[in-house]
Amino acid sequence: MTDSNNLNKPSGSDKDQLARQQLASQQVTVKAWSQKILVVLLCIASFYGGWKSHESSMVNQCFASGGQIVEGDKTILCKLS
Fold first, then answer.
1. Residues 45-50: contacts with CB within 8 Å, 24+ apart?
2. What's residue 57's pLDDT?
3. Residues whose CB is less than 8 angstroms from the CB of residue 66 and which lie 6 or more positions away in sequence, other chains included
4. How far apart are the first and last CA of the chain?
5. What is the pLDDT averaged over residues 42-56?
6. Residue 80 · residue 65 · CB < 8 Å
7. What is the tally of structural domains in the chain?
8. pLDDT tens-digit profile of 20-48?
9. From residue 37, how far is each of 3, 33, 41, 49, 71 by CA, in Å?
10. Alpha-carbon torsion 76, 77, 80, 81, what sign?
């Protein structure tokens, strides 16, 4: 049995709509990845900022208690006089 009206074949407008849907899904995927990368970068920046803030606070507490900073390899020590 053949379909003389070609009802099962997509028309030109259906093809255009399908192409637009595929393009939109690709844009959403790119947007999702860029948002994930942005979130990761913001998390790293926030962690680094918090770390430096804590370090600064420890140095200020050392100076407030009359100490001086002695820097080691990977640590900062407070030497009280």
1. none
2. 94
3. 80, 81
4. 100
5. 96
6. yes
7. 1
8. 777 777 766 767 888 899 999 999 999 99
9. 50, 6, 6, 18, 35
10. negative
How far is residue 75 from each of residues 47, 55, 59, 70, 80, measured CA to CA in Å? 18, 10, 12, 9, 16
**CA 47 → CA 6, 19, 22, 35, 77, distances in Å?**
61, 42, 38, 18, 22
Residue 2 lies inside a defined structural domain of this protein:
no
On whether residue 53 sits in a domain, the answer given is yes
- The first and second tokens of residue 70, run together, are 């002695």
Question: Does 23 map to a domain?
Answer: yes
